[in-house]
Amino acid sequence: MAVGNLELVKKTEITTSVSSVDITDVFSAKYDVYKITTDNMISASGTPALDLKYIDSGGSAIGSGYDRANLTLKAETTFAENRNTNASSVASGLSNAESNGAGSVSYVFNPFSSSSYTFHIMQGSFFASGNFRGQKMISVLKNVSSVTGLNITFNGANCTGGTIKVFGLASN
Fold it and tell me: Which residues are CB-contacts of 114 (< 8 A; sequence separation ≥ 6)?
């Protein structure tokens, strides 16, 4: 299914309690830019982070080499900044224990290229203890291996529902 310049590559529905999900065979030479959306991400308790790792062409999650920075926009208090070098994952969205699930939109650049870094930008929103939060994040995987998929781990509590979509962005 294509919408404008977007082509749906893969849709993953979470309908049972899971601690992680692998989304394989999504990145290819067909596209240089991908859009990833998370919708209505709900957890059983707490506000767990969605820790994303890329999966290399051999099927293994890449567990190091991520430089990242994020800004959490808190409605009730001061914004919070966080920066890491050589981190073990990309912080790529949030899920939510409150009834209105969290969501995010990400763009990934050059994931399949074995000659350039993989870049990632994300923005999303969620509630924590009744307070609205927004988040913006940038990251780079400083590893030039070809990336073909995503490994998402829900830290803090299992995810009990939500939808993850990956789109390829076609160029004209």
Answer: 144, 145, 146
User: And the tokens for 104?
Assistant: 């995010």
d(CA 155, CA 19): 8
Q: Quick one: tokens of 1?
A: 């299914």
CA distance 54 to 146: 10
CB burial of residue 140 (10 Å; 0-12, 13-18, 19+): middle
The reported pLDDT for the residue numbered 172 is: 60
pLDDT given for residue 1 in this prediction: 47
Neighbours of 71 (CB within 10 A): 15
Q: What is the pLDDT of residues 73-129, one digit of tens each?
A: 888 889 989 899 999 998 755 555 555 677 889 999 999 999 999 999 999 887 777
Structural domains of the chain sorted by starting position, each given as residue range(s) with its CATH number in brackets: 2-169 (2.60.120)
* Percent residues over pLDDT 90 in the chain: 55
Neighbours of 57 (CB within 10 A): 13
